[in-house]
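Action item from last week, closing it out:
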Amino acid sequence: MSSLAHLTIRELSDGFDAKKFSATEVTQATLEQMRAHNAPLNAYVLTMEEEALSMAAEADVRIATGRRLSVLDGVPCGLKDIFSTKGARTTACSKILANFVPPYDATTVSMLRDAGSVFLGKTNLDEFACGGSSEHSCFGVTKNPWNLEKVAGGSSGGSAAAVAADMAAFTLGTDTGGSIRLPASLCSVVGLKVTYGRVSRSGVIAMASSLDTIGAFSKTVEDSAMVLQQIAGHDERDSTTPLVEVPDYTKNLAKGVKGLRIGLPKEYFTDGVDPEVQKILMDAADVYRKMGAQVSEMSLPMTKYGVAIYYIIMPAELSTNLARFDGIRYGSIPKDIGESLQDMYYHVRGGGFGDEIKRRIMIGTYVLSAGYFDAFYSKAQKVRTLIRQDFDNAFQNFDVLLTPVSPFPAWGIGEKANDPLAMYLADALTIPSSMAGIPGLSVPCGFTKSGLPVGMQLLGSQFAEPLLFQVASAYEQQTSWRNSKPKL
């Protein structure tokens, strides 16, 4: 039965339709996989076994009567512990929300319920999605399935590790500056960062509101397209979701890349990028050349400013969003709250927030303070516009851009813990596209000599997700990286 946990969404959906197995059998197999491997990996921070089996039983009734709701009906999935789930603990992996149980579902969670997906549990993350390694969680670090001494990436490390270890057919995550693409690359799964506003953020605990996006981790490109099909679209609860038609994301998966123009930004292949990573990405570019694509070097000159302005804009928005966690409206109230309101805030936030959150709140509050707003935040927004123009200009001459996801493969747990800047640089190649609000797709494309995964990042213009799926699927069909599994 455990082999059922290895199947893709497409294989599960076809199997359900052919009555080869039941949703309950698939869910039981996946729960077995979780019981066997979650303890060393720490991918899930909450297991919803009873609810999962109940949802699977309901799916089986629909399957038996030919009334499946969607291709995701009966398919088991995990949810990053930042998505509000009615009646199930949601903590953002922070002590300050240790016992918070939302009274409602996030819009995306409701959409998956309506599609018939089976919820296995909540996955680990860096506290309030702040981090690139999943080491900043009150539940402890998520370990990389390919090497337990390495990080899984962040902030959605638990979601990536769960898919890589076959503890879910797919998972949901969030990407603000690389939090889906980075762990997808480090764990060798497919990870999608959508165009800003393509998927509703309603009911998802906010980090940086002008940057946050919702996406999925999956085992294949086709699976990623099928998940997006179910969760994309306008939501009246999220004013940043435009009235843009949701296309058929699976329509062009077999179309190929002949004649397409693929750009290699030279700023993404500098001395700061590990030589092994560069070699693997150049090999991927050669695969596209052999398939008939036109691949050539180009330039995105504003790339070098990405990290600097991100760590002005993101902390500013984070500090504003986290101001609501005061122990009155949200948050846990400690026994000792002092004598004044200021004392209470000190005790609630001092004990409830971790070091990385405190660091970012202080940076954000500083850049928004009187006398510094114009010098830092306003100027950063102007540079952000230049980065967006960089990409706009690039897409006049190229259909898709191909880059590494991370400058280096997975690093050791604790290796960058005392050097925040080194940790921040892990997102140097994903941040610029987040600033521009464009979609990015991380696709497995090889391994280092030491056996660590490397991901390829494909970037497109706004709402170009169908093209990214087309280009990524062509590569996936020409290579066998998707078949590689960690030895757990």
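Closing note: The first strand starts at residue 44 and ends at 47.
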